[in-house]
Design goal:
Structural class: alpha/beta
Order of helices and strands: HHHEHEHEEEEE
Number of strands: 7
Low-confidence stretches: none
Shape: globular
Largest sheet: 7 strands, mixed
Number of helices: 5
Radius of gyration: 17 Å
Mean pLDDT: 95
Length: 169
């Protein structure tokens, strides 16, 4: 098992065993990271979900650092609805992740003005569901995307061979 996997498992176990301690640790680490990046003349942006879909908004992390942009992808349509209605912190941006099972929700949310990430097989279309498609492979700074954008990503790795509907043609 790689060190990265070991680290992820250790953090998952810590989160499961003591949520409060875990969240306090995250807040402390974010505070240190903000101070360090600002000392170097940069501004930190935080994406807490890399391989998970934890609803971090319920832990008040974003409110602790109101001038720091936070962003995540989520497959939780209810979370995106909450975001669209303004019930999340202003510095927290969510992009809906379309997959082979939530296509109807992706279309509904795109019509409502949500940013939706979708994977395309070989090239990015100019529009999808009547929305402009931007190239999401250029960077991961989703909080900078125009509202209502479709974040187009090209299929990579095993996704290139997908035939279950995750990848759009």
């Amino acid at each position: 098992m790689s060190n990265v996997i070991k680290g992820r498992l250790r953090k998952t176990k810590m989160f499961e065993d003591d949520e409060t301690r875990f969240v306090d640790t995250i807040k402390d680490e974010i505070g240190k990271a903000i101070a360090w990046t600002e000392s170097k003349g940069y501004k930190l942006a935080v994406r807490l979900n890399g391989t998970s879909d934890v609803p971090w908004e319920k832990y008040d992390i974003h409110a602790s650092y109101p001038t720091t942009p936070f962003y995540d992808y989520s497959k939780g349509a209810h979370r995106i609805d909450k975001y669209l209605s303004g019930r999340l912190e202003e510095n927290y941006h969510l992009t809906f992740s379309r997959d082979e099972q939530n296509g109807k929700e992706a279309k509904r949310l795109a019509r409502k003005g949500a940013n939706v990430a979708a994977v395309f097989r070989s090239e990015l279309p100019e529009t999808w569901q009547g929305r402009d498609v931007i190239n999401g492979d250029k960077n991961d700074l989703r909080f900078k995307d125009p509202k209502g954008s479709v974040v187009g990503l090209l299929a990579k790795g095993s996704a290139k061979d997908d035939n279950l509907g995750f990848v759009l043609n």
